[in-house]
Amino acid sequence: MNDTFGSRTPCLDLRHDDFYSVSRGGDCTGPSRPATSHYDYVFTFLNAFHSDFRLVHLAKEPLTGVTNVPLRLGSRYISCPNGEYHQGHRGWLVFGGGAPPNAEIWCN
User: Does 17 score more than 90 pLDDT?
Assistant: First the structure.
């Protein structure tokens, strides 16, 4: 996230399964962004630079299972190393496993 957003605050929109950013110190919620579906991820990605996660353009959404949703950054999906269900190959950063707040984010 730091490589993409720099000093801006990373946020997650669970209605659209998409990461976005606001100005540093800004609030991820607002009149058009209900607090129940928008979360601040600044502490999660505080010092993450040059990671093995990659942004990938795909013609269609990758298959990640019936209870998992692949997360995006804009129109690009987030590919992560050693996906649990991909026999050592790259997988996808997903959100799922239940409804918030019990859902999690992990590499599928």
Answer: no
Report the chain's C-alpha Rg in angstroms: 14
Phi, psi of 69 (to 5 degrees): -120, 125
Report strand pairing: 72-73 vs 18-22.
Answer: parallel
| Alpha-carbon distances, residue 81 vs 2, 38, 47, 66, 73 (angstroms) | 18, 26, 19, 21, 17
Cα separation of 26 and 8, whole Å? 8
pTM exceeds cut of 0.85? no
pLDDT at 26 over 60: yes
